[in-house]
Amino acid sequence: MACLQEVDWKRLVEIAGEYYRPGRFTTFAAYEWTSTPNTANLHRNIFFLDTKKVPEIPFSSIDSDDPRELWKWMDGQRQAGNELIAISHNSNLSNGLMFPTEVDDRGRPIDKVGADADAQRAADGTQTGQGPIGDNTGAFTQ
């Protein structure tokens, strides 16, 4: 039996495809990914180019609350031929984490959330890595 989230996602994709009218009414298969590290809200709206090629189920903060994992998933979707884009919103509720202003010695944004997660992974003996917490946005190709 499919989980409720999967059923809801499939229905949303069906409705978006059914009501799309080029030049008259635009619909998207889309959802919101939200992570709340230390009560900071990191909202991203994820939009797919069309309903013809979307994943079976979207990536959620249940899968990972680390934005870098969302970007990896999005890169995998692009490699599979799914065109998508992430748009951040409600950054005023992110306690400054949505758009970091500190940079490392190479000018890359320092990911405070990622750094905290990396420290925990190091303490746990699991894999570490650092990357920006900003957005993995991309333009649709069409």
Radius of gyration, in Å, reads: 17 Å
Shape assignment: elongated
| Main sheet strand line-up | 1-2-3
Uncertain stretches:
126-142
How many distinct beta strands?
A: 3
Beginning-to-end CA distance, first to last residue? 36 Å
Question: What are the secondary-structure elements, in order, as H or E?
Answer: HEEHEH
How many structurally independent domains? 1
In which range does the helix fraction lie? 25-40%
Note the main sheet.
3 strands, antiparallel
Mean pLDDT: 76
Structural category: alpha+beta
How many separate helices? 3
Strand content: 5-15%
Structural features:
single chain, alpha+beta, 3-stranded antiparallel sheet, 3 helices, 3 strands, 30% helix, elongated
Structure description:
30% of the residues lie in helices and 14% in strands. It is of the alpha+beta class and 142 residues long. The protein has one domain (4-124). Strands 1-2-3 form a 3-stranded antiparallel β-sheet. The longest helix has 16 residues, at 4-19. 18% of the residues are buried.
What's the structural blueprint in terms of helices and strands?
Blueprint: H1 4-19, E1 29-35, E2 42-48, H2 67-79, E3 84-89, H3 112-124
Antiparallel strand pairs: 1-2, 2-3
Short summary of the structure?
The chain has helices at 4-19, 67-79, 112-124, and strands at residues 29-35, 42-48, 84-89. With 142 residues, the chain is an alpha+beta fold.
